[in-house]
């Protein structure tokens, strides 16, 4: 096994201290703020110690089999809100109605897995009834920001010939624009109903919940003639867990504790491009 340690700022002596818990054969710098610790000893106790030490030092860590390379994977599937982008679009739309606290509270509960996603989305969208549809463009123009490292990560995986899927419990208004802006291959999300320029408080068709996200990853893999084991799946909330479980590598990005605990890798401090450091080039 190799141990990857990375952070927004990294001091080598701290890396050596933490890596020492896993007794590496050597430590190699693989970027300005990332190190690969080669041939480490790995067991639950070591992982637990590294987990605590890395968290305290604000570093992300990953134990990776030495043989794993980026070309093992053919697809990267990403959640949108709070993963590819920094905001929860529905919370920002609600802010235009003066309802952000009520909607954000339901969003948080759903992401922690305390409310079933379909119910939470139905309740939140209903609160938007009567809002002028121009609010969506305002959120896109004024509030939507890509997550740290998103463009660098996408450039890296697209250069490696991998396909991209944005699968979201959010809305087509935003995923369509992300697809065009970032040259993504596939998107799937919920469609807000708009009548006479106003939101009706309803979505059109089925709701993209955790089950549908998983089914979407499976469907795209089938179309690409690959196994879900050849997919990297990234998310932050409880409704991402089902698609993360079928992936060859699951990545929790700035995620809720329930997601961090179940993912293969957690990126708590670095940007999305931290994924690229996990593999031998």
From TrEMBL:
<dbReference type="GO" id="GO:0005737">
    <property type="term" value="C:cytoplasm"/>
</dbReference>
<dbReference type="InterPro" id="IPR050582">
    <property type="entry name" value="HAD-like_SerB"/>
</dbReference>
<dbReference type="GO" id="GO:0000287">
    <property type="term" value="F:magnesium ion binding"/>
</dbReference>
<keyword id="KW-0460">Magnesium</keyword>
<dbReference type="GO" id="GO:0006564">
    <property type="term" value="P:L-serine biosynthetic process"/>
</dbReference>
<dbReference type="GO" id="GO:0036424">
    <property type="term" value="F:L-phosphoserine phosphatase activity"/>
</dbReference>
<protein>
    <recommendedName>
        <fullName>Phosphoserine phosphatase</fullName>
        <ecNumber>3.1.3.3</ecNumber>
    </recommendedName>
</protein>
<dbReference type="Pfam" id="PF00702">
    <property type="entry name" value="Hydrolase"/>
</dbReference>
<feature type="active site" description="Nucleophile">
    <location>
        <position position="79"/>
    </location>
</feature>
<dbReference type="InterPro" id="IPR036412">
    <property type="entry name" value="HAD-like_sf"/>
</dbReference>
<feature type="active site" description="Proton donor">
    <location>
        <position position="81"/>
    </location>
</feature>
<keyword id="KW-0479">Metal-binding</keyword>
<comment type="similarity">
    <text>Belongs to the HAD-like hydrolase superfamily. SerB family.</text>
</comment>
<comment type="pathway">
    <text>Amino-acid biosynthesis; L-serine biosynthesis; L-serine from 3-phospho-D-glycerate: step 3/3.</text>
</comment>
<keyword id="KW-0028">Amino-acid biosynthesis</keyword>
<keyword id="KW-0718">Serine biosynthesis</keyword>
<dbReference type="InterPro" id="IPR023214">
    <property type="entry name" value="HAD_sf"/>
</dbReference>
<keyword id="KW-0378">Hydrolase</keyword>
<dbReference type="InterPro" id="IPR004469">
    <property type="entry name" value="PSP"/>
</dbReference>
